[in-house]
């Protein structure tokens, strides 16, 4: 379960911000639902109050309740804002690469994601192969890791545009792919 993996939080925020900032996103309603479930899953966290009256969660995030809403600590808000800015910048690059991606690649991925018999590892491998194939096929002057990151996120958008009901599955798979293959790059980027 991706919720239990705190190390994927920055990947989730980055991908969400990318999708939110991308043009031609036809799944905005599903994206709103995704925000509550994958980006700020506060209800799934164990919360308690520390000696200062601040709300503490099991996700190593601190904050306090103000008017009944969780107010995050400044450090968390600052990091999230950095990931949002980076996601928006990557969305601009993604919008340029979007038209370079052949419909066949997207259709193949959609078929894999519709196949519920594929394991999490198999579906991540399918995404990885598609991303790496595109990285070889599309000439780019950007560094390899950045190209892989942007292509993975563009494929996420294109699959969700084609079949919006797949958004959660493709989002989860892409976060796993980014976490496995590009986590160090993202840390360096920040």
Automatic annotation (TrEMBL):
PROSITE patterns: EF_HAND_1. Its main location: cytoplasm. Keywords: Apoptosis, Cytoplasm, Membrane, Mitochondrion, Mitochondrion outer membrane. The keyword Cell division does not apply. The keyword Membrane applies. It comes from the Eukaryota. One of its GO terms (biological process) is positive regulation of intrinsic apoptotic signaling pathway. One of its GO terms (cellular component) is cytosol. It is found in: Cytoplasm; Mitochondrion outer membrane. InterPro entries: Bcl-2-like_sf, BID, EF_Hand_1_Ca_BS. It holds the Pfam family BID. This is BH3-interacting domain death agonist. The lineage of its organism: Eukaryota, Metazoa, Chordata, Craniata, Vertebrata.
């Amino acid at each position: 379960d991706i919720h239990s993996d705190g190390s994927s939080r920055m990947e989730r925020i980055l991908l969400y911000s990318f999708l939110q900032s991308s043009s031609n996103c036809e799944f905005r309603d599903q994206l709103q639902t995704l925000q509550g479930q994958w980006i700020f899953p506060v209800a799934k966290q164990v919360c308690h109050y520390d000696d200062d009256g601040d709300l503490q969660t099991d996700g190593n995030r601190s904050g306090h309740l103000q008017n009944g809403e969780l107010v995050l600590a400044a450090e968390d808000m600052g990091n999230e804002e950095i990931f949002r800015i980076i996601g928006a910048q990557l969305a601009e690059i993604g919008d340029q690469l979007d038209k370079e991606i052949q419909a066949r690649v997207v259709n193949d991925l959609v078929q894999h994601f519709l196949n519920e018999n594929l394991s999490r590892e198999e579906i991540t491998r399918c995404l990885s192969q598609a991303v790496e194939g595109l990285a070889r096929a599309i000439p780019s002057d950007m560094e390899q890791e950045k190209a892989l990151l942007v292509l993975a996120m563009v494929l996420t958008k294109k699959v969700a545009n084609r079949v919006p009901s797949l958004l959660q599955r493709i989002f989860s798979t892409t976060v796993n792919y980014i976490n496995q293959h590009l986590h160090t790059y993202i840390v360096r980027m920040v």
